[in-house]
Write a structure and sequence with these properties.
The chain is mainly alpha-helical. It has five helices and four strands. The chain is 75% helix and 5% strand. The two termini are 29 Å apart.
């Protein structure tokens, strides 16, 4: 089989594959999109759950520090009135220590409030992420079921066409395959055009006699206007 006939067959196979993909609609892309969204939410959920664990540990640590600092302040205050302090210098030193511990207590209590606020926010976000994840998983299952059902309908034809495509392309050189792919994309599936009455079937441009003769000889020629591969059927004479 000459090269132009292989290209004509390849175009026919690719257009049939394109029609099969149209039957699948946006299901493949939707499944891919939902799968990526599921992975993203799972990662977000995992990070927030780890953050919640760390925050809970910090809250417990700060609660212990707050309680210990408050107890220490109470002990120091008791010393002010139990006769342990006998000089003004000791009194001033004790008051300075109490003030220091009070400042430390204020700082730890402020940190504790921030941590508790963060924990509350994380709990809310985790709940929302779990609800979102449940919804995504439900949607994804539905879309996968729909896609699998449609794939099952067309799988036999799809697989046969892919095998046929492999058999056609194995004997086509890489440069021609690259040119074919470029035209297929640019011309929306119409890669090969017939010469009818010395005109390109694809764009209507005039084709010079020399190109017509080369097309009749099954040589690889292109339309000078739309760049499509050209062929000429021997049984169709010019007017």
């Amino acid at each position: 089989m000459n090269l132009i006939n292989q290209i004509i067959l390849l175009q026919d196979v690719d257009n049939k594959l394109f029609e099969i993909n149209k039957l699948l609609g946006d299901l493949p892309s939707k499944v891919h999109e939902l799968t990526e969204e599921e992975d993203s939410v799972k990662l977000s959920l995992e990070n927030k759950e780890n953050d919640l664990k760390d925050t809970t540990v910090l809250i417990s640590t700060n609660e212990t520090l707050v309680q210990a600092t408050a107890d220490k302040i109470n002990v120091l205050k008791d010393k002010l009135i139990d006769g342990s302090i006998s000089t003004n210098k000791e009194y001033d030193a004790m008051m300075e220590t109490i003030d220091f511990e009070k400042n430390l207590l204020d700082k730890k209590e402020s940190e504790l409030i921030d941590l508790m606020t963060k924990k509350e926010s994380l709990l809310k976000e985790i709940e929302e992420d779990r609800a979102s994840l449940d919804g995504i998983i439900t949607q994804l299952k539905s879309k996968k079921d729909d896609l699998n059902a449609k794939m099952e309908e067309v799988s036999e034809e799809n697989n046969a066409l892919k095998i046929e495509r492999e058999n056609i392309t194995k004997d086509i050189d890489d440069d021609t395959k690259d040119k074919y792919s470029q035209i297929y994309k640019a011309r929306k599936g119409l890669v090969v055009a017939e010469i009818l009455d010395n005109n390109c079937e694809g764009c209507g441009a005039y084709i010079p006699p020399q190109i017509v003769n080369e097309a009749l000889a099954r040589q690889i020629v292109f339309c000078g206007t739309c760049s499509r591969f050209l062929y000429k059927s021997e049984n169709k004479s010019e007017n």
